[in-house]
Every structure is written in C-alpha cells, then in structure tokens.
Sequence to fold (299 residues):
Amino acid sequence: MATKSITRRRLLKDSAIAAIGTSLFLNSPLKLFGKSKEKELTKVVLIRDENVLNEGNKPRKKVLEQMLNKALIKLTGESEADKAWKKILKPDDILGIKSNVWHNLRTPVELEQLIEENARRIGIGNENIAVDDRGILRNNVFKKSTALINVRPMRTHAWSGVGSLIKNYIMFVDRPASYHNDSCADLAKIWQLSHVRGKTRLNILVMLTPLFHGIGPHHFNKKFTWKYNGLIVGFDPVAVDSVGVRIIQAKRKEFFEEDKPLNPPAKHIMLADTRHNLGTANPDKIELIKIGWQDEILI
Fold:
C-alpha cells in the first residue's frame, strides 16, 4: 500500500507540474547544482556588451573575451580572470568542450577558441582538449574526459520548447530520439549517466543573437532573432536555462504584443529541478547578477 500511495502522490505532483509548465515553470525547493544548501541562492551571471558583434553580426573576439572573463570573476568570486579559470580547471584535466554545430545558429568559433586558449594557459595539453558536438561518443578526449564545459546558443526548439544547456547533452546518448517523448521531459537523466555525471565545470548559454520563435523541426528565420549581445554563465545548467527561457518568453511577448507561451513548453527545465534534482529552476532561488549593457535587458 505504501508503494501505491507514493506512486499516486508522484503522479499527482507530475500532473500539476506539467500544467504549470505550459506557461513557464513551477516554484520548487532549493537545490544547488552539485550540492544542497538550505539558504543559499544559485548564482547566475548575465553579461551583455553592445559592441560584441560587428556589422556582420559576428563576434568580436576581444570583446567576447572581456565579457567571459568578467562573468567568471563574478561567478567565482576571484579577483582576476586567471584565478577564476584555475578554480574551474586543473592542469591534469582532460577537457571536453561540448559545443553545438547547428548551422543556422552554432556556438561561436571565437568562444570555443577562448575556452581552449584558457585551458592551455592553465597547463592542459593540446592532446587533452577537444571541441565536439555530434561526434562526442567517438571522440577519445571525451571518452577519457575528467572535465566538461558546456557551451551553446539559445534557441526555440520544436520538440523541447527551447534548445539550451540541458538539451545540449543529448548527444551523449546513442539514440537521442529516445529522449524526445513528452516534450523531452526527462533530458536531465542524461546528466546522471556515468560518462557525464559530475564532470561539468562550467555552463555558458550564448545569447548573442537568440532565436525566440520557430515553426516545426529545424525551422530558422532571421526575423525571429535579435541582437541581445549577451552570455549567461553559471555552474548550474538548470538555473542558467531558467534565466534564458525567461528572456525568450519576454521577447516573445514584446514581439507578438501578447503572451505567447512556448509550444511545446520548455518543461524539461523545471523537471530537471523538481523530478531529477539536477539544479534549481525557481527564479526566486536564483541570484541573477547583471553586468554591462542594460538596454532592453528583458529580465
């Protein structure tokens, strides 16, 4: 009877979560990525610079470097960027940089290069650094990795509401399509796999020119992107995604001049917290630090 009762309570809870998830996500218990602390907020840094993109909407690497370094100093509490990087990576790490190569809106090469350069500066050898996306299961560096850095652009997605940091790890499984059920509700399970669990040192959600609306799989229209000129950085991928999706929702409301919820809802972000205990999605439990350009910040 006890098992039956627990199952019934779980079903009722998940049903309530799904209903609320159609708008955004549910208030939930505090859970920090990697550890639980009763009265401490999860820190996320949003940094923007109006000059980060050139006339062709390509990143200026030097400006991007300054943004990333400032964000890491705030995130780690260190006084200098080099010290912040040394808090994240160690010389004996084997580093996999999980990128995203979707041709319409890929991870900026300049950002990949900056992560590699800082890893080498710390003392990690070239042979122990790899940037990859769709080939990570065959990549020898990723197979032996002790550390992962997760970096990808934010965009709407036909199966999961948004493609962001949590979903970026779907290539760590042999059959990604097996996670598409129920609006990709259980993507957070991937983060508990033995070759992934506990390895992620940093999450960077690229918000330079996010895609805030799409129709159907693989849809892309530049009309639905805008120059937000930002990065969202944190240790907790759930908290970073939570901030990112709020910005996307705010942009949709501004553009369409009405509340236009994501369809499907990005409920996997909230369920990563409430069902899978990966991190925190509740905005009230996130300390959002905003740096730099504030115009039309939307959050």
Summary: DSSP finds eight helices and eight strands in the chain. Residues 1-38 have pLDDT under 50 and may be disordered. Residues 2-292 form one domain. The chain has one domain: 2-292.
